[in-house]
From TrEMBL:
A UniProt-annotated Pfam family: Response_reg
Domain Response regulatory per the UniProt entry, residue ranges: 5-123
PANTHER family: CHEY SUBFAMILY (PTHR44591:SF23), STRESS RESPONSE REGULATOR PROTEIN 1 (PTHR44591)
InterPro entries per UniProt: Bact_response_regulator, CheY-like_superfamily, NreC/VraR/RcsB-like_REC, Sig_transdc_resp-reg_receiver
GO molecular function: DNA binding
Source organism (scientific name): Sphaerotilus sulfidivorans
Keywords associated with the record: DNA-binding, Phosphoprotein
GO biological process, one term: phosphorelay signal transduction system
Protein name: Response regulator
Gene3D superfamilies listed in its UniProt record: 3.40.50.2300
Modified sites of kind 4-aspartylphosphate: D58
Length: 124
């Protein structure tokens, strides 16, 4: 199983740190960067070389929106796989994220194991 490079867009330090710890412990993932806002995420992703294998994006950020990150990341091919991880994974939000180019959408509160499983399949 190969190690995936992962960029995380999440404004909560507690959630971000726990997510990094969980992913790096459970699957072969190396977090190559993080951002708390839409503009910081897009600036950092623009400078990433090579582009990360996986970008995990929260919808509600400190400034801007994860939807903007998702749309620009898909348009400019920042990251091979784009995933949304949100507490607001309603059917409407899942549809909107898919329209903007999300490969998958996971609910933070109930689908973390599914996210881990998805990462395992990417690294296989």
């Amino acid at each position: 199983m190969r190690t995936l490079s992962c960029f995380i867009v999440e404004d909560s330090p507690v959630i971000r740190d726990n997510l990094i710890e969980t992913l790096e412990e459970m699957v072969p993932v190396r977090v190559c960067g993080t951002a708390e806002s839409e503009s910081d995420a897009l600036d950092a992703l623009r400078r990433q070389s090579p582009q990360p294998d996986l970008v995990i994006i929260d919808i509600f950020l400190k400034a801007g929106s994860g939807l903007g990150v998702l749309q620009q990341a898909r348009q400019h091919r920042y990251g091979r796989h784009l995933v949304v991880l949100s507490n607001y994974a309603t059917p409407e939000m899942r549809r909107r994220c898919a329209e903007l180019g999300a490969d998958r959408v996971f609910d933070k509160s109930s689908e973390l194991e599914e996210l881990i499983g998805y990462c395992e399949t990417l690294g296989a």
